[in-house]
Amino acid sequence: MQSLRLSFAALVLGLVACAGSAAEGPGSPEPGAIQSAPNEAPPAAAEGPITCGLPAPVVSEDPCTKDAECAPAEPCHAHACVAVAKAKPRTPDTVCSTMLDCKSVDANPCVCHEGHCALVPKPN
Fold first, then answer.
1. What is the reported pTM?
2. Longest dimension (CA), the chain
3. Are 71 and 84 in contact (CB under 8 A)?
4. Strand partners, 58
């Protein structure tokens, strides 16, 4: 009987706690949300497409004659490309984040650029 009373009391307290947030209604902003004045226009979206890539090639000192001779310098989010022999290999215990880095091999290819391994802006 005692445990039934405690269970009922916990249920009532839970309902009371939820009632406060339900009273705000479905259209209420989330806590900490920034609101604009009722007559104020929402912020304008950026014009043009959003791009993700390098502004210019990142060229290494490693010579090459074809793209296959070049690889990312690091196994995760590399910001440079090097000769395959110098590339740090990915091991079974390598764990990379799932974050996209626009200035890395996540979004740009490693190629042989003007005789040197380079990370270059992706082609459009």
1. 0.58
2. 84
3. yes
4. 119
* Residue given tokens 């269970």 in the structure block: 7
**E-strand stretches of the chain:** 58-63, 70-72, 81-83, 110-113, 116-119
Locus of tokens 């604009």: 36
Blockwise average pLDDT, block size 10, the chain, 124 residues: 48 45 49 53 63 90 97 96 96 93 94 97 82
CA pair distance 3, 7, nearest whole angstrom:
6
Q: How many residues does the chain have?
A: 124
Following DSSP, what letter does each residue of 68-90 receive, concatenated? GGEEESSSSS-S-EEEGGGSPPP
Structure tokens at 9: 């009391």
Burial of 112 (0-12, 13-18, 19+ CB in 10 A): buried
Which phi and psi (to 5°) does residue 82 adopt?
-135, 175
Token pair listed for 79: 């910001």
